[in-house]
Design brief:
This protein is an alpha+beta fold and about 290 residues long. It has two domains: about 160 residues, 3-Layer(aba) Sandwich (Rossmann fold), CATH 3.40.50.10790; about 100 residues, Elongation Factor Tu (Ef-tu), domain 3, CATH 2.40.30.90. The strands form two sheets. Strands 7, 8, 9, 10, 11, 12, 13 and 14 form an eight-stranded antiparallel sheet that branches. The protein has a six-stranded mixed sheet with strand order 2-1-3-5-4-6. β10 and β11 form a beta hairpin. The longest helix is centred in the middle third of the chain and has 14 residues. The N and C termini lie far apart (about 90 Å).
Length: about 290
């Protein structure tokens, strides 16, 4: 009889609905908290209390304080390499406790974004599209007890991310919302040249990554092996466009296409940003020197 009962139990587990046997998805966790105190660990504890089998990947906790744009860059860089159903929870929230809203977004590629509605997810929404979004209002999915005015990462975003990763439907979290977006203007062609800007500085190497996609260089026209005239602020440089760093001597500057498909500027085994005093958002103007 015991053998029959055990067999019946095993059959029951095997035939259980997929949702009942579903393992929690991966959560990508990003903050500007740093790791010198217990804030990150507290958020993880909240998530694991809800979903003990949850896989949490620390994307980074070293985003410069309050830097929404850098946080958005990091998420947009990493998220495409994670499977459908991955939840990205990002807490860079200078408006914590204010009237700013909290949001969960399902992208058209099946990723879920959780965080403050402050434009943090602008780049991901541009890249992946938005299937739907909701404002986080259903407090039953928050951490039990009184929600802190200053620690929504622990009391709101972490528990919501865990519930979503464990299978809670997005629409149960609150009403539809149109997420806030930052004003991000793409690079453009004008008068036979490309006008863009510095998107970010790649730390710690000092590589300068622009918002100019490689495909836009075809309109100059220009090809790898050519030279480019690059104006960065008040400085104008003539840079060889090559495929990789060692295509020029050590210490020489060059232009190349970054792994993200964007035009970038580097120094072979050096720091381009420091050498030429470049910072994020600096204007960039590029034209081809083919035939000159």
């Amino acid at each position: 009889m015991r053998a029959l009962a055990l067999l019946g139990a095993l059959v029951g587990v095997a035939c259980a609905p997929e949702a009942a046997r579903r393992e929690p998805a991966t959560v990508l966790f990003l903050t500007d908290f740093g790791v010198r105190d217990g804030a990150v660990a507290a958020c993880k504890g909240v998530m694991w209390e809800i979903a003990p089998a949850l896989r949490i990947v620390d994307l980074t906790h070293d985003v410069p304080p309050y830097d929404i744009e850098t946080a958005g860059e990091v998420i947009e860089q990493a998220l495409p390499f994670y499977p459908e159903g991955t939840v990205a929870v990002a807490v860079v929230d200078p408006g914590v406790g204010s009237e700013r809203k909290a949001v969960a977004i399902l992208t058209s590629r099946g990723h879920i974004l959780v965080g403050p509605d402050n434009g943090l997810f602008t780049l991901v929404m541009q890249t992946e599209g938005v299937e739907r979004a909701v404002e986080l209002r259903e407090t039953r999915y928050f951490r039990p007890g009184q929600t802190s005015f200053t620690f929504h990462g622990r009391d709101l975003f972490a528990p919501v991310a865990a519930h979503l990763a464990a299978g809670t439907p997005l629409d149960s979290l609150g009403p539809p919302i149109v997420p806030m977006r930052l004003d991000v203007r793409p690079a453009r062609i004008a008068d036979g040249r490309i006008e863009g800007s510095v998107r970010y500085i790649e730390d710690p190497f000092g590589n300068v990554v622009t918002d100019i996609p490689a495909a836009l260089l075809d309109s100059l026209p220009a090809r790898s092996g050519d030279s480019l005239e690059v104006r960065l602020g008040a400085r104008t440089l003539r840079l060889p466009w090559r495929n990789t760093f060692t295509d020029v001597p050590q210490g020489q500057a060059l232009a190349l296409v970054h792994s993200r498909g964007l035009l970038s500027f580097s120094v072979n085994q050096g720091d381009f940003a420091s050498r030429f005093s470049v910072k994020r958002k600096d204007p960039v103007v590029v034209r081809s020197l083919r035939g000159t």
